Amino acid sequence: MKNRIALAVMLGWIIGALAGCGSSPGTRALTGGALGAGAGAGVAAITGGRPATGALIGGGVGAIGGAVTAR
Length: 71
Known about the structure:
This protein has 71 residues and is mostly helical.
């Protein structure tokens, strides 16, 4: 359980850093959501979880992270 939490926190930090590359908040939210969905599905598949759930959670975290980051 601790490993999954640590992995989720690290993944959120990486997605937030990558999502800050867009020129507008909407663009950053879209790219952050896409990156987060892919990463969340991948992590869920590797750790034995449900990829669809991982994609939903990762996409939400990535979209929020992208929308609130500065350029």
